[in-house]
Amino acid sequence: MLMKKISTYLSLILVSLFILSCQKKKQENAAADSFLPMQIGNLWYMNNMSYTEIKDTVRINKKLFYKFYSLVGGDASSTFYLRIDENNKLIESYPGDPTKTYTRADFNAKIGEKFFTTGQKDENDNEVTVVQKSDNEMTFSFDPVYHPNLKGHPSEVKYIKGKGWAEKYEKIKIDGVVYGK
Length: 181
Known about the structure:
Blueprint: H1 2-33, E1 43-47, E2 50-60, E3 63-72, E4 76-84, E5 89-93, E6 102-106, E7 114-116, E8 127-133, E9 137-143, E10 155-160, E11 164-165, E12 171-174, E13 177-180
């Protein structure tokens, strides 16, 4: 009787370990499949004076967002909140104004497709066009079409699958794995 109980407990432990292992593999694959992997501790590092790191998570309108902290040039900093929604769109919002959202990227869009960051037709609204897409890279062009001085002067943002922003980083840390130096 005692051996049967021990055997049952061991079986439960092995099944639990197997399930946890599968869940970890699924999380690792999710990071590799994402154009902007999000996990606390992920880091995009140029130098001590310029980097972006995921510091925490927060709920905004009951949805999970990741808190990104950036230091630029050693003296300017910013905090922004991002999530990838169920439609594979990169959404930005803020706890102080949870009704406003910005679409920074649509990773399901095809080359030439367009969308707007807010849809408000104000100076902060950008017309975004997918200008390049492959299995591993995606580039978006942002044109502030409603801004009187900036319209017609687009800027581009490029993402690399599994690593995030395509900038000249000294190192990138994704899910504990360091790329670069």
